[in-house]
Design goal:
Elements lengths: L2 H18 L11 E2 L1 H9 L12 E5 L13 H7 L6 E2 L19 H10 L7 E5 L9 H10 L5 E4 L2 H6 L27 E2 L1 H10 L9 E4 L3 H5 L17 E3 L16 H10 L8 E4 L6 H10 L8 E4 L2 H8 L15
Parallel strand pairs: 1-5, 2-3, 2-4, 4-5, 6-10, 7-8, 7-9, 9-10
Helix pairs in contact: 5-10
Length: 337
């Protein structure tokens, strides 16, 4: 699937959004939002529950790895401490339930139903955040998902740990059940997503004369990329795709706050990996969650063309399960890139 052929799709969608959504909501300066900016936006929300004015709504995307040693879950974390008025987006439920792979994008109908259940309206400004414990981790995946389905005003909080450290308001206990909304079934922005068939073609074409130079960034740990550490899912091979570059998402975060690093620092990291901002970039990880952290960092650093940055939804879990041992499409550090 050629990148150039897909670019008009996103342009037409963006043009449509400019016409069918009122510009009355709070405007943030960038995709990544500071705690102070979100706090100020929440103060501007209409006080009346019956108001139809656009709102700024925090979306909690708390999620933990399946091998979490403490057995923590996103919903428990949401109940224990959350931003007031926040809604919970369950990554493990808002997905394609017919797929054998975790976290694959849901159907357009399933997405719309989830938004209605959360009481989200199309003209709401959404700011996604994750957990105080992990810092920036799963929120970018939900932010990316919301953008894939064309929600007009989406941002990611950088981050909830800083929100808590700055003493901003939180609440706990059973959350209030929101009044269901009417959310139109959206279109699917195909030019933001890469699927297995295309990735397989890219893998086979790697290194061939005349092949398009596509940069693949892998957000998993260096050990998983090298094939020296096991995957968190039993029975799954570790290693990497041909031509991919190890880009652990943790390297893009502040070591203490786990917030995304400043734009200039992010750009320096990408350049140190010998990446070319003029060439297409695909991000991947284990199941498509932390790849979105890299995607958010690319966006924050304005690195690469927006239409040339995409995410491989199935990521390593699908790749390692579907490519054969004899294909040569699973590389390790010992075998060479």
């Amino acid at each position: 699937m050629a990148f150039a052929a897909l670019r008009p799709t996103r342009l037409r969608a963006a043009q449509a959004l400019r016409h069918d959504v009122p510009r009355r909501y709070f405007t943030f300066s960038s995709y990544m939002v500071t705690p102070k900016e979100l706090n100020e936006a929440l103060k501007k929300n209409a006080r009346s529950k019956i108001s139809t004015a656009p709102r700024t709504i925090p979306i909690c995307a708390a999620w933990f790895m399946p091998n979490d040693l403490q057995g923590r879950t996103g919903i428990e974390c949401f109940k224990n401490k959350r931003i007031p008025m926040a809604r919970f987006f369950d990554i493990d439920q808002v997905k394609d339930h017919d797929s054998p792979y975790p976290h694959m994008l849901p159907t357009c109908e399933t997405f719309a139903q989830a938004m209605e259940k959360m009481g989200i309206r199309r003209d709401d400004a959404l700011v996604v955040y994750d957990t105080e414990e992990l810092g920036l981790f799963s929120a970018p995946r939900v932010g990316w998902t919301l953008r894939v389905y064309g929600h007009p005003n989406v941002h990611v909080l950088n981050n909830f740990r800083l929100w808590c450290q700055e003493g901003l308001s939180t609440e706990s206990g059973e959350p209030e059940i929101p009044e269901p909304s009417k959310y139109p079934v959206p279109s699917y922005q195909t030019d933001m997503v890469v699927k297995f068939a295309e990735m397989k073609t890219i893998g086979y074409d790697y290194g061939k004369e005349g092949a398009e130079e596509i940069q693949i960034l892998d957000a998993r740990s260096k050990g998983r990329w090298e094939g020296t550490e096991p995957e968190p899912r039993p029975g799954l091979r570790s290693g990497h795709m041909p031509g991919s570059t190890s880009m652990p998402f943790q390297d893009l975060l502040h070591p203490e706050t786990k917030a995304l690093l400043p734009s200039k620092q992010l750009k320096q990291i990408f350049l140190s990996k010998q990446l070319d901002p003029t060439k297409p970039i695909i991000v991947s990880c284990g199941t498509g969650v932390t790849a979105a952290v890299v995607e958010a960092a690319l966006q924050q650093a304005s690195f690469g063309k927006p239409d040339d940055r995409r995410l491989y939804d199935g990521s390593w879990t699908e790749w390692a399960a579907r490519v054969s041992e004899s294909s040569g499409l699973v590389r390790t550090a010992k075998a060479g890139q």
